[in-house]
Prior knowledge:
Layout: E1 2-13, E2 18-29, E3 33-37, H1 44-51, E4 59-64, E5 67-72, E6 78-80, H2 83-90, E7 93-96, H3 108-118, H4 124-137, H5 153-166, E8 171-175, H6 183-198, E9 203-206, H7 210-216, E10 219-224, E11 227-232, H8 234-239, H9 244-251
Parallel strand pairs: 3-9, 3-10, 7-8, 8-9
Antiparallel strand pairs: 1-2, 1-4, 4-5, 5-6, 10-11
Helix pairs in contact: 3-4, 3-5, 4-5, 5-6
Amino acid sequence: MQVLEMEHVKKSFNGAALHVLRDISLHVDEGEVVAIIGPSGSGKSTLLRCATLLTEMDSGDLRYSGQTAARSGADGRAVYADKQTLKKIRGYFGLVFQNFHLFPHYSVLKNLTDAQISVLGRGKTEAQQRARELLAKMGLSDKEDAYPCQLSGGQQQRVAIARALAMDPAILFFDEPTSALDPELTGEILKVIRALAEEHMTMVIVTHEMDFARDVADRVIFMDGGVIVEEGKPEEVFAAPKEERTRQFLARFADR
């Protein structure tokens, strides 16, 4: 079953002066882990923002588990579903940002329970139980009363992942989840994501960690210039890329 379908997605900024996405099509199956790699400015983060309804597409189709969030109209422009439908569709996905985006005036526990109560309609007891299960999974059981400013960057990112999981999404997006962390903290976040992959969590991960993408992803997509240049199994893309542009990009990481 396809959890995410994006077809012929285009996006420009500055009055069409800057073409960021140029006819992108992407499908993600249930239980699949897709890593998106590419140079800065290639459109990776914009693609995620379009997928998660944070940025409107200029044109293209967007569906979650068969539910249409947007489609190309008669004039080619993207037409979005009504507010009620979009609210339902937002429940299908979770997004983990680069810079955590935790509420600084909320405790860790409240960061995890607030949306469960207000969006999912869970009772406080049920929401707290789910939050504590996830904090234990993240190795943060002793931090439920702490505030974000009292946590390390790696701990904050683990809280952000737990918060996204608390909403029981069908698919989880990561936008460079380790880019704001010191190298020594990167490993703990990659370990968490690797564990989720082993549990067959459906994920799309924009990352600059090439070894991680090769080891964890079921499929790797290389983007450049707003297009998908190449995609395939990690062993195909990393060991025997078909496109010269892919080879040039990966050569930068060969000696690291």
